[in-house]
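Hello everyone,

My group is preparing for a crystallization screen and wants a predicted model to guide construct design. The compound we'll soak is guanosine-5'-triphosphate. Before spending weeks at the bench, it would help to have a computed complex in hand. I've included the protein sequence and the ligand's SMILES below. Output in structure-token form would be ideal because that's what our pipeline reads.
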Amino acid sequence: MHSFDVLVIGGGHAGVEAACAAARMGARTALVSFDLNAIGAMSCNPAIGGLGKGHLVREVDALDGVLGRAADAGAIHYRMLNRSKGSAVWGPRVQADRVRFKAAVQQAVRMQKGLTLVQGEAAALVLRGGAVAGLQLADGTIFEALRVVLCTGTFLGGILYRGEERFEGGRIGENAAHRLAQQLRGADLPMARLKTGTPPRLDGRTIDWAVLEEQPSDGEAWTMSPLTERRINPQVFCGITRTMQAGHDAIRANLHRSPLFSGAIAAAGPRYCPSIEDKIHRFGDREGHQVFLEPEGLDTHLVYPNGISTSLPVDVQEEVVRTMPGCGRTVIVQPGYAVEYDHIDPRALTPDLQVRAIPGLYCAGQINGTTGYEEAAAQGLVAGLEAAAAALGRQAPRLDRANSYIAVMVDDLTLQGVSEPYRMLTARAEYRLRLRANNAATRLTGLGIEAGCIGAARRAWWERREDVRTMFHVKHSEKVHARELADRGLPVRRDHGEKSLAEWLRYDRVTPAALAPWLGDLTELDPVLAEEMAEDAAYAPYLARQDAELRDLRASEALPLAADFPYGEVPGLSSEMVERLTKAAPGTLAAAGRVPGVTPAALSALLVHARRRVAA
Amino acid sequence: MIDRPTIFALSSGAPPAGVGVIRVSGPAAQAALEALAGRVPEPRRASLARLRDAEGSLLDEALVLWFPGPATATGEDLAEFHCHGGRAVIVAVERALVSLPGVRRAEPGEFTRRAFANGRIDLAEAEGLADLLSAETELQRAAALANAGGVLSRQVDLWRDRVLGLSAEVEGVLDFSDEEDSAELPESFTWNIAALAEELTGWLGRPRSERLGEGFRVVLAGPPNAGKSTLFNALVESEAAITSPIAGTTRDVIERSVAIAGVPFTFVDTAGLREVEGADPIEAIGIDRARDALARADAVLWLGAEGEGPQGAWEVAAQSDRTDFAPKSRANFTLSATTGDGVSALKDALVEAARGALPKPGEAALNARQHARLSDAAEALVSAQCLSDPLLVAEELRRARVAFDQLIGRATTEDMLDTLFGRFCIGK
Ligand SMILES: Cc1cc2nc3c(=O)[nH]c(=O)nc-3n(C[C@H](O)[C@H](O)[C@H](O)COP(=O)(O)OP(=O)(O)OC[C@H]3O[C@@H](n4cnc5c(N)ncnc54)[C@H](O)[C@@H]3O)c2cc1C
Ligand SMILES: Nc1nc2c(ncn2[C@@H]2O[C@H](COP(=O)(O)OP(=O)(O)OP(=O)(O)O)[C@@H](O)[C@H]2O)c(=O)[nH]1
Ligand SMILES: [Mg+2]
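Reply:
Good plan to model first. Here are the tokens for the complex, ready for your pipeline.
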């Protein structure tokens, strides 16, 4: 019988990162999935990154994950969203060629040392004394494992909807999934239902690109992963079109045929990327909604119309598409549909994504109520690192809300649960001025090296970079007089005295480029780092102020609340609050403060009782 | 929690009074009702009962009330005995209570402590209650009551909601701008921040709650033998300061706090101000201290020669009964501390001035901690107005929210811990 330290189920984005992360930690790891050739497939829009999501990609990459490099390998269109705003909310996003992206993921998985790939259907967990001890496949094979990571996406009770039609999702492994699902239900895991949708795919040859506004790939050189030396693929442009009144009328006339509106799907969908019927219903007065026509790859004619995800019947989809400028003759290759699925209430998980009720079992990805490749990948990374660390008796990198979006997401999920598919947004990160997409390596790679999950190539890259960073620090603390700057034509007043270069960088229009005479050739040595260091300098006063806040936060993180803390015994907590706190089981008093609905008065009561218990 | 003692205290004013309300809080509150009233009345309904002690002798006929926990003021079972307010009755009922197992007299502040520990009140309210306990004058009590009753907490919640609304607007611009629905921030956005900042500044300008503790500081000043100590004694209504015809009798600063018409005052008598040559070293120190006291005064009563007092001092023509009385041409007050002539006019004017300078009754007043947090919020809003980068605007709004959270204890921060464990000794 085979035995592993960590066994990962599911070869989606979550499973890939979980398996590779565990193997990088040095755990003997296996990845079990229905179809090994489907590993790295993108179920929907072949775009990676975006607002908030781009941060996740960079963070996964900084911990030596797969997603960033695979995205670069497939990228045929790069765009930095929010470029006009402060750099902390810039969102790097690429469109990837499906085939190239998948090939890159496949290669990463197959090259990963210590990772065994197993094709098969996970049928049931092997439990011993209530804890996970292994996995049984549908064909009867049994694997022993110290830790099991569940990354099975929407396999739990998925139903696809298209107009009046409906299909059971995850048909292939229905039985297997059934037994696994039963086990989870048997463990009294709280489940809920969510929905999400996808737009129809269009045949690009039937689109009149000439009449459309073009959106080119941005002309810069940045990549998702700093280990990708340069952009590889030819870059394509997207077209911009919009929905028209005639299309809206068709939608309105057929709203009753949309499962989203007929009541067939009662589950909550994402507010952030609503279906087109949702948009028409909610913002009916709009003249039209913008639609990006995104080519799906270099060797395919498929085009993804971003902005019209829908569950309407095919004939209505056609009408909506055909009324968009440039799409009068456009052919739908594959109609859009909506999916409704079960997910686990992530409040049943501890901050390492372990199921509280089944020690040794971890969950990551869409199964936890999130949506998106990046969200799935980031959770997979956490679960893989934690499972490996637990199996090997080591420490995973210490992630918290002040050092990563990854931790923000895990904390949100495990404390607040989800009421709609969880999507990353920069607004979720209270310390986002320090959590920039472009400083992910500075924030996390060092922690990863300490924990032992960073490969040799990235480690060498990072160490070189740290040397340059030190040089920057030295340079930035050099003092220069305002007169000297003014003499060189910089927009500063001559009477502003002598300041360090770092302080000068806080001034409007004092850029690293403008300071080149003083920074020397350092900027050329690493222009990306130069940019990052300049931003650090510019944000420094804000970051310093946050430091005080973080000290306070860490002080209240120091007061632990046991998983079985008897909230019912704390007088003054309403029964609703007791229920929320019991479900979320916050690990510390600070975490309890982030559970929704906990009032200041309740928090003080909790504090007092926690102190008393600690003292007793 | 089971072995927590049951506490009681007279929660109305000191006897004798019309009614004396004795509150009992804790697990034995129900037993106390049974023991004294012979039964437990319907919850939250006043009913008449004969109170008897353990021997069965009648103590009083009283209204009794029963509030089962946890939805009570303290979060525990609560009983109230509304007795006839005579001293003997109160003492008898209290004695009967003490004799019950697990029941004892409450320590000062203990009811508040329990309410706070049981999640019945938030930090700002608890601070209000703590002030309430130490309130000695009617004005202090009214202000503390406003805080304790949640006036400040409710206000902060409203501000916080407004900031949340503003934050949502900025986030809309920051996070959704890759979609067409994004908008620039509307013009009203900056006005709204400005309006809120102004409101906070208004609150910050209000008299602080510590002012209530210190009272309105009135310093008496003038040359030796001007009659300062005599007037001081008349104002504080005691022989606190020594008076004599010897010049330089008062050598140090003497302070007395009193309430006049419910308004707290601190009167300060000082050494007569004269050129130091004529004074001995001790008197010289006293004169220095007098000058310090003048600097911290809310009002100065000047008993010296007209126009020679400090700026803004009230001109008092004292000793008006004396035959050699020298009137002032623009005296604010002409009086004699010995006969009492004109003294009550002075008191009335002082009460009037103090009311303006101290927190208004029923208006929530900020203490030093709350003032500091609210200043943080105001500062964040002011700087948000001058920023063009929505990212930094969002950060300032967040900072304002954090300050509000700290103010009412929504964030469990160090200063909340300090307040809790310092002021309330909750750890016990
Ligand atoms: C219709 C639709 C549209 C979407 N559109 C977008 C979009 O435009 N952009 C975006 O970012 N995200 C989109 N998403 C979400 C995104 O696809 C998911 O959030 C993400 O892929 C989830 O990754 P995962 O690893 O958790 O699960 P999945 O990618 O679903 O992977 C699950 C894996 O587990 C395997 N598996 C399941 N059960 C078993 C079993 N019993 N034994 C063995 N293997 C098993 C499956 O074969 C699969 O490989 C969409 C999702 C759907 C359903
Ligand atoms: N008749 C009369 N005598 C007064 C009055 N006020 C003060 N005196 C007398 O004047 C003398 C001086 O009064 P104090 O009150 O000691 O004077 P002081 O200003 O405090 O003097 P120093 O403490 O020495 O600075 C005492 O003998 C008082 O009795 C008054 O209103 N009428
Ligand atoms: Mg005197």
